[in-house]
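subagent[fold] <- orchestrator: predict structure for attached chain, return tokens only, no commentary.
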Amino acid sequence: MKALSARDAKYNFGRMIDLARSEPLVVEKHGRPVVVVMAVEEFEKMTGEHITPSQFEDKD
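subagent[fold] -> orchestrator:
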């Protein structure tokens, strides 16, 4: 599994998305893994949950 530092993830967000679409990606902060970023399709397979764009709309 590939890893990026939190700083690299922040400043190269597009690259992080591209990497995470091909395989789960670990984001590390101070050398420790803190989150895993993965493609929506992979998440849906893992959980059985379907993600729709409307779930991310601002509700203010």
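orchestrator: received. Logging for downstream: Residues 2-48 form a domain with the YefM-like fold fold (CATH 3.40.1620.10). Helices lie at 6-11, 13-22, 40-47.
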